[in-house]
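HUMAN: Forgive my ignorance: could you write out one protein's sequence and backbone structure tokens?

ASSISTANT:
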Amino acid sequence: MTRTVLITGASKGIGLACAQRFAALGDNVVVTYNTTPPPDGFASIRCDVTSVADVDAAFAFAEERFGPVQVLVSNAGLTNDGLLLRMNEQAFTSVIDANLTAAYRVAKRATQGMLRARAGRMIFMSSVVGLLGSAGQANYAASKAGLVGLARSLARELGSRSITVNVVAPGPVATDMTAALGEKRLAELTDAVPLGRMATPQEIAGAVVFLASDDAAYITGAVIPVDGGLGMGH
């Protein structure tokens, strides 16, 4: 069955890999972006996930083109790193808004159609940092940890309507963002990973696609680590 899939922040990296995997399955995929459009071939719309109006417009676009959203992947996010004593309040709250409050916004909008259909899948993109913490990333780690509480609360609220809500927690992933860190920092990251390497975006997308599949129909409120063993035990 062809589904309508909406993925936020999907112009590159993990989001784009997810879009490509769902499209390969034959699903109708709508991707949102903030600054750089995705490659040709995807239905796309600019969406600032910190704006309720933009979120509503993105869902309206998907619904008009393909029908109600059946799979939501809340992937959009940002970082603004800094040690606590140097982190001003705007740097903290802006990351919470883009990473955590935005997930609330898109989940609330997706729930409308999913409740009517009595079915749906939501997947939130967290991070191993949300479970382990990371010096200089108090804002980012807090936002990613918050997604776990949000997802598990929604899993309890919506489970009776056959709507599942799960979290994927990647470790270091080979993307444009990590490539900019430099060889020394990349070596430090991979040295900490038991598998000794970073993940590819496609490996993260594999977990997302699984959670949206029929095989995962009895999984909800779960946190799926795709981190090479970095966060094991958490």
